[in-house]
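Readers outside the structure-tokenisation community will struggle with the description of the input data as it stands. What matters is that the chain and its backbone geometry are given together, residue for residue. For illustration, here is how one protein appears when written out as sequence plus structure tokens:

…
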Amino acid sequence: MPRFVTHSSTRPHLRDDIGELEAIAERNWTNASVLFEIFGELGYRNQRKRKRKLKDKIYARLIQIAGEYFRWPTTAAPGGNRRLSGMLWPREGLLAYLGYHVGERGLPTLERRAILDSVYLESLPTVNNPIYMADWGLPRSSLRLQKIAESLAAFCRNRKRSDRRFTSAAVADWEADLAYLKEKYYDGVYSFPWPRT
């Protein structure tokens, strides 16, 4: 019977004991790829109580993460009549309230991104009303990241629809900030095919 050699490239956690696996899982609780590697490794191990408990915990987390996936928004703005819909917009949205402004009179890149990082990572003040704030979700959640991304993408699409001949500094800032958020918080955590624009 042939012997199979298992390489560390297919089992990156081969040499980690259960305590190390628990610590790695805790440090990477939002990273589905790492959690899946640990879950796979635990399948090779004897099913003692501690290992079973970690495997069950990781399985539940992977199911939760799968439910959090969302498609990254596009800034493509095809068609349209160059008018915004009749939706009721708040007088001042959360991002503007916190000082996020783009374009020629907006903030420098590092200041804008510091605000975006803070919005994603920290608790938020109540702006407008509790119903408006419910859409922003919890800090570090997929709902929070999705709301930020969808907001920036919507601002960008609306500007593009308002005048197709006009490419503004604001559009460039929104698109650059979306790329920043995608690379920093989305890629590697919500890893599924990226939509084309």
Observations:
- Residues 1-8, 84-88, 192-197 have pLDDT under 50 and may be disordered.
- The chain has two domains: 18-68, 94-186.
- Residues 94-186 form one domain.
- Helices lie at 18-27, 32-44, 49-68, 94-97, 109-121, 130-134, 142-162, 169-186.
